[in-house]
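User: Hello, can you help with two protein structures?

Assistant: Certainly.
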Amino acid sequence: MPGQMAKGFLAQAEINLKLTYRDKTVIFFNYMFPLIFFFIFAQMFHAEQGGAIVQVLTMVLSIGILGIGFFGAGIRAVQDREANILRRFKVAPISAAPMLVASLLTGILNFLPSALLMILLSHYIYGMPFPQRWISLLLFISLGVLAFRGLGLMIASVVNSAQESQIVIQMLYFPMLFLSGMTIPISVFPNWLQLVAQFIPSTYLVNGMQAIVGNNETLAQNTSGAGALLLTTVLATFLGVKLFRWEKEEKVANSAKLWLLAVLAPFLLLGMYQAHSRDSIVKSKLLARQFQQSRTVLIRGARIFVGDGRVIESGAVLVKNGKIEHVYAGEAPDPKLLHAEAVEAAGKTVLPGLIDVHVHLSSPGGFSQSADAYAANKAMPRALAEYLYSGITAVKSVGDPLDDILKARTLVNSGERLGAELFAVGPMFTAKGGHGTEYLRFIPEAYRKAAEEQIVRTPSTAEEARQQVDALKQVGVDGIKAILETGQSGYIFERMDTAIFRAVASEAHAKALPIVVHTGDSHDVADALNAGVDGIEHGSSRDEIPVALFQQMKTSGVTYDPTLSAWEGFTNVASGSLEPLERPLVLQAAPPGLIESSKKFLQSADGMRMRESIKKYGVDLGIAKRNLMAAWQAGVTLVTGSDAGNPLVLHGPTIEREVELWVEAGLPPEVALQAATYNAARLLRVSDRMGLIKEGHEANLLLVDGNPLKDIKQIESIQSVFLKGERISRSELFDQE
């Protein structure tokens, strides 16, 4: 009996193949029709300009798989039954099982040559690298053909006429065509529609092929989608055999169509799981991000500020696959020869993306009664989008709640949400009762201990300090921040014991973590330098730092971050100035509600009391500027941090204002801009991939009108922002969910 079934299966497979290759219509739809779509989509999506060819390839393959399943198997089986072709097989020694299995096999044999042809065209015409996971790709394509061909045969088993089959197939085909990412990327759908897409079988077909071709994933990394396709094949084949009919006179009840739900059950269950986990939604977003980053762009005719002090007065930057492919001094080749989109930049300046090495994302910088302004899961991603809108492509958080900042880092750095790349430093090492702990008194006592564990470390011994640094290394922080600050009259703090502080610094170095130190005056700076830190934050706005200390900084390679923006913010609050809230870029980037509530607060009675309190703090912006000037004259490596989150230092265009203050203090614009790019990247220990316009570096770029080297305020005239090669649609940054 098994031998008879095998013979029947082979005979039927041979017949199917012969019939297929004799049928000119089948040959057209299997081979010529996909070719037409391939070249149309390639033209529409500018496939020659980068990773869009992967989208084109997977779109055409997916459409082909749906076609060979629903139309090549489903409708053809119904037509064969109505034309009494199946009746002839009824008298032969063959059962339904080998007929259906043979149909599944011939579907694979018919489709794979077409798929291979598309892959070859993608490589030789549009430059797509050959897939590294050939076996995984061919197996996944085969699973797709089996599943959708099985689904087509299942439809043929539960309909009573060709007309019914057309209706049922169209009801399934069009949602799969338009809601699965096959023709429109899922990432552009509203949130509710992205959830709907998780219940559609072809979503997993598209995602799987894109991940294998574009991201070099294996079949094992796509087990949920592959498993659902395989289970659907098994269910469809089993039920198809049970419900198979040879003659058109044999009718089934309309209720038989409910068996389709059983066949689709794996995807219904998978959709329910994905609606909860959102893994597939995230994967779709990440794949879409990678395709955007892979596009080829030529920024030509621009002045190029390289980042390390060099300037190319007229040149071009070629961006490809998320990185800087080439920097041209003078005229560049024709964009068509480079297969690149041209960005005309005559009269403009291109710089490396700006970097802010000192921000506090858990504080809005303004004054708000809205809980959303302080809700980390909303406020932090929003703030990072504000930075990216402003051309700041990387920021370092210093002292934000640990769990929240690590979640935000994963969310944004993975590409799931667009925003400035985030570096997480903290919690802050300080003394019990030291600066940083004063914020805890505003938290209800029941929650105070948990909050303290998130934002500060207050070791009592050197050994405890080392253990705490080790623990932070284990959770993956990017650096350590410590505080040496006694405050002044009216604002006195406990100061960390210098022996404990030195233990923090030495352990940070032992664990390859850069350590920066918040200082309040020149005495704090001296103790920090003697401990061998990597960076001084704030310096002093209370006294002038001796030249000898700046010389020590230069010799030791310690960076200096004056945070003039924070000192200006305190000054503006004390004077009641609303000017920081009326800068054009602030109005564009910051939440409108936060700006309005901040203005109202500053003009209220509570605002008046705050202004009087801040006046007693003794901030002197003039001293801070003179210290910055002295640091530059001593040859210290300067970096830019804004201390955003402090009063009237709203997240967004922080570094633009910081470098403007530096120029006001007397520094040349090119010095300030180098501090905001290359020097900042060196402090973050990522100068091998960002901070320079250099071949091989990530394409984090800022294109501005005019020449900020002559007029620093041109840094706010932003034309375009690129993050890892993706040209950011700035107007859509605040619509992300």
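That covers the first. Now for the second protein you mentioned:
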Amino acid sequence: MLTGSVYRVSVPVSKESFSLLTGEPKIYIKTADSDTKRAHAFCPDCGAPVYSSAVEDPPTYSLRVGCLRQRADLPPRKRIWCRSALAWSLNVAEVPQIDRQ
């Protein structure tokens, strides 16, 4: 539900390496099943997700790849939350593709 998709692609980055170039994101706090709270930042104008992090003094940020200029240079390195993955989402290589909308 968080992404509106069956996938969410994130890149971890240390807080020392992270800085926003422009704007001030809107933040909401999500509470996980474990009661862990995470801050989720998104663009207040278009709603695009920007990052998530611990609520207090985050050591790292999970950057949402969709808003990064370097996204083509960031291939996947691992998959998480596979237990709840939709079975068909694990291999879409045979699904016909269209280059443009």
